[in-house]
Structure formats: structure tokens, C-alpha cells
Amino acid sequence: MSNFVEELRWRGMLHDAMPGTEEQLAKEMTSAYVGIDPTADSLHIGHLVSIMMLRHFQNAGHRPLALVGGATGMIGDPSGKSKERNLLDEAALRHNQDSIKAQLALFLDFDSDAPNAAQLVNNYDWMKEFSFLDFIRDVGKHITVNYMMAKDSVKKRLSGEGEGMSFTEFTYQLVQGYDFLHLYREFNCKLQMGGSDQWGNITTGTELIRRKESGEAFALTCPLITKADGGKFGKTEEGNVWLSAKYTSPYKFYQFWLNTSDADAERYIKIFTMLSKEEIDSLVESHQAEAHLRQLQNRLAEELTTMVHGKDALENAIKASQILFGKSTEEDLRDLDEETLLDIFSGVPQFEISAAQLAAEPEIVNFLAEETSIFPSKGEARKMVQANGVSINKSKVGMDKKIGETDLIGGKFILAQKGKKNYFLVRVA
To answer: Is the pLDDT of residue 233 over 90?
Structure first.
């Protein structure tokens, strides 16, 4: 077994750990869990830190447990929230759980017969038969209200100006504490990990194990990830960056990491990749010598896109990026699927022409100035075409060019380019 805590430490992934945690991990193979509330059918990159913790944990020879919080997902965790979240029904929770397991399998080994194979558990399975009376008798009496009120997550909500906190949310830490107790009993789980905002909930679990079982359990947290400029990590103008291609395309996922700042890329490559310290130190050194090449960002984007979406998706994302920002061919353009094409050119001016207009095969100047208004006048369009400054689908065109069905990409798009950087997307409806 390798030193898990030390691995987290040099990667900047260790915020706090209970005394004795490192000694426990050095003593024997240990089971640890991270909880994920299944509020959607995809994880987003905000989950990645705790997932990478589990991955390093398994790599160090220990057993990771991923807990999908079916029961707690029905309640909502007050930690770091200013208001109560929407509650989900059982069918939605089960669907989300299945989707999340498939994503976790990209990072963790669930299927081997190794003693430290990962396991997915759902707290709904042991909480659904638990009556309210049983819960307050067997769990509630062991934790005082004073103890619960002292937690930062509770104090912040009660002292804030919002709507306060419902009893449902107040009980969250008890339910999470019971999860830890259950996993301690059933899986000999002695460690819970999570973000630093989870410390209060986690230690409620260690306290419950101490009082109910006279057992010893431990807590370990990672820092909450922020951006160097103080902005929220993992958010774009469109919202969360998801691991599912259904919500965030591989191209946009790749671009997110590619566009990180130098300071962020240096931190993120330690946290979100499995590269060794030697590899990262070498990369940082090369990057500092030739910052304009953005080696850190490129490697970060490559590693994560491959990990989440696979090698083919990475190659397509690189190819797609080159279409807009580098040298590419008409062939590269035709290889793109519609979603990626629209992602790439989401910010460029778009025009629409009818199938009948296309069937008439307009001459290039008419296409640019009359069928569309890419150019304000035919004279201006003519001048630019004659100067070899107009491309259709990444290929230069001359005055003899007519636009027809063979120019369609994916049966419905034409990409016009004025000069080097001015793109226009024409949709044929």
C-alpha cells in the first residue's frame, strides 16, 4: 500500500484529517466512502475532486465505496446552500443512480475480484424501511441538539437572512451520520471523505460510531476548488460542466479545460489527472519556459477528455478546435457531427436560406450578398472573392463558384469565411 495521505498532500487535495487517519491507513487495507447526492443523471466537474480522491484511495491499495444518496437526495443537504433544494421521487433517483454508476466506472474498478474492488451503495436501501419512530429512538437520542446546532452548515443557515432551515434539512446530518454507522457495521468502513464543507456532517458520523459501537472512525476532507480570480469553479455561462455528453459536449468539455488560466492549470493538473509528480514538475517547468504554447492547458484538457469521453472524442475535440483556431481542411469540417459543429460556431452570425434557393445554385457573389447578407453589397463581395479572401467550407473559392447541394455539411449547413477570422454559418431549411 502506498501513502494515500501523502499523495493528496502534494497534489493540494488535503484540507483536514482527523488525528489517527494516516496511522489507520498505514495499518491495514481500509474502506472509505464518499457520498454523492443523485440530484441529476450525470455528475459534473464539481464532483471530480471527491471522485479523484476515491481513485487515489483505490490506487493506494484501499477499498473505495461510492454512496449514492437516494435517501439523502430526497432531503437535501444544507451545507453550502442558501435555500432548500427540489426533492426527487424514487423512479428519478434510481435512474440517476444507474447513470452515475456508469460514470464512476470510468474512474474506479468495480468489476475486478481484487479485495479492494470499488462498490456502489445506495442509502435508500437501508433507510426506506426505517420508521420515523425507530430513527429518533435508535439514532436521534445519541446526538444532542446542542451538538447539531454547533455545526457551521447549520449556524450559517440559521443566522442568514434567507428563509432559515426546515426540520427536514436540519436532520440531514443525522441521516448522513447514520450512513457512516451503517457502512461501519456492514463493510467495516472506517473513513468518510468529502469536501471541506462536509466536515460537520462527517464528524457527526464518527461521533455516532463512537457512541453506538464504541468504535473508532475517521474523517478526511479536501479543499473546495476555486478559480484563481475568485470565480466559481466548474461554472460557465451555460451552467455546470457535466460529465455526460448529453449535457456538455466533448468539444465544450475539452474547451473548458483548455481555457483555464496558467495559475489554475498548474493546480488542476495535480488534482484532476493521474500524472506523477515528476511528470507534472517537468510539464510546469516546460510551460514556464514557453508559456505561449500552453502546454499545461493542453495536457490537462487531453487527460480529462480522454478519461471521461475516450480517445476518439479527444481527437474529434482537437480537430474541432483547429477548425476555428488553426489550420484545418474541408474534410475535417465534414467529419464533424451536427452538435459539435453548432458548438464550435455557436457565437458566429447565422443565416437561413430555403432548399429552393439552394436548388437554384446561386453564384457566389449573389449567395454572399443577396441570398444572405454576409456582405452588405455585391461589389464588396466581388472584391473580396477576387482578392482570394472568401472560403466556403474551409476551401478558397473564385468567381466561377456556384453554391449547390454538394456544399452542404451534414445535409443542412454551409460554412462561409470572410478573411481569416470572420465565420458565418448558413443553415438550409
So the answer is: no
Q: Which of 15, 85, 94, 227 is catalytic?
A: 85
Residue 134 burial class via C-beta count within 10 angstroms: exposed 0-12, middle 13-18, buried 19 and up: exposed
Residue pLDDT, tens place only, 162-183 = 677 788 777 878 888 999 999 9
Superfamily of domain 4-222: HUPs (3.40.50.620)
- Name the pTM for this structure: 0.83
Q: Are strands 119-122 and 239-240 parallel, antiparallel or unpaired?
A: unpaired
Q: Is 176 a catalytic residue?
A: yes
Active-site residue, from 15, 24, 39, 394: 39
Quote the CATH superfamily of domain 235-326: Tyrosyl-Transfer RNA Synthetase (1.10.240.10)
Q: Is 185 a catalytic residue?
A: no
**Amino acid letter, 413:** F
Catalytic (active site) residue 62: no
Whether residue 236 lies in the annotated active site: yes
What's the confidence (pLDDT) of residue 191? 98
pLDDT, one tens digit per residue, over 321-346 is 888 776 778 888 888 888 888 888 88
Strand 413-418 to strand 422-428: parallel, antiparallel, or no bridges (unpaired)?
Answer: antiparallel
Is the separation of the CB atoms in 3 and 23 below 8 Å?
no
Out of 15, 24, 81, 94, the active site residue is: 81
Q: Catalytic residue at 44?
A: yes
81 is a catalytic site residue? yes
Catalytic residue check, 221 = no
Do residues 73 and 93 make contact, with C-beta atoms less than 8 angstroms apart? yes
φ/ψ (deg, to 5) at 221: -125, 155
Which residue of the set 176, 203, 295, 417 is catalytic? Answer: 176
Pick the CATH number of 350-428 from 3.10.290.10, 3.40.50.720, 2.30.30.210, 3.40.50.300: 3.10.290.10
232 is catalytic: yes
Catalytic residue among 134, 137, 152, 236: 236
Q: Is residue 98 among the annotated active site residues? A: no
Active site includes 39? yes
